[in-house]
Amino acid transporter transmembrane domain-containing protein
Amino acid sequence: MAGLQEVTGLLTRTASVQTETGLLGHHAHGLTVFTTAVFAVGEMAGSGVLALPSALKGTGYIGILLNVACALVSAYTGMLLGKCWTIVMQRCHDYQQHIRYPYPAIGQVAFGRFGRLVASCSINVTLFGVSVVFLLLASENLQSLVRNAGRDISFCYWLIIVAGALCPISWLGTPKDFWPIAVGAVVSTSIACCLIVANAMYDGKKLSPATYPEIQFESFFMAFGTICFAFGGHPAFPTFQTDMKEPEKFGRAIFIAYCIVLLMYLPVAICGYTVYGTQAADNILETMSPGPMLYIVEVLITLHLFCGFIIVMNPVCQETEELLKIPTHFNFRRVIIRTIMVALILFVAESVPHFGAILSLIGGSTTTLLAYILPPVFYLKLCSMSGDWDKITVPLHEKVACIEIMIIGIVAGVASSYSAVLNLVTSKFSTPCYVNL
């Protein structure tokens, strides 16, 4: 706990997290509450929303309540994470300035090197996996668009083309350097969700009544992993908070973000499942009738995925660059490292070209850990620590809520991961792309 020994005597002390003021970590040209919310939406919304109608096949209409519950719990744990970072900034002089790895830093202060390693490894696996999912889905959409235009190019080649296009954009610095990308991601996804609902309602008028499968253990927890993935933006949340003008207002940004995401998700999930039922594919766009609306949606979602790829990949790159002592300003070493990172993402995508299976596995494992287990664990630990600061008293109802979230997260995460792995190694296995090229 060496970092805790460097607590400055000039910090404002408070007895409650709720009354802490953001005197530290401010950036004159940082993100506002609204732009932070936009970044959070840009990271979460996109690939997850396309899989929600299929997820409801495993849960039935109870999945609607599960979506709302996951959104509420995710928003709450996101706010806990924000409180954790505020505590860390107030206690540790080393973290008062902008750093590249805030989530692992919270783990370091709470549990030492072990906490840091758990957080760091989980984040890197999650965001790397999300980047793979984004690459797979963007390539899938472009292949569909070009095929409908009369030209069929192998999906494996599309992966290479898309990765090549994304590589130069990945060289940008931190979130505050590319806020227009986040805005583009949110706008494109919002319009796409409206068009998906409209197209589903149009299909509902001409299709036969949908049939719905029975709910089973494996499919239910596969669906849970998918829903967790859709709401799990936590790995990048602290990175956004460190770029804010007023980091102590991060909770407001998270509340706004989850309200927006829920308004996007629920209509798509309900309409898609109601209209298509058992026919709903992992990517709902594959189930929709071809036509102008579908093509516009594919373009918009692909635009989001391009933007989202840069957002989710950025924290992994920043921590890697910190470990390798690469300067924060633009330089040739950054270009090399981030190009290698894109190449690794491409290799995994070519090896396991299955959008739905990877999404469920990530959602049930590391996303669950980062969104539902670590935030309450870190928060309770930080509040219980004693030192040269006023002790923070956590109300009983808040302790109970944190413990319940952790228990549910552990049980559901293990069951979901098991179901996803079983599904991946049985029905979803196929030859890697580079073997078939």
Notes: The chain has one domain: 22-429.
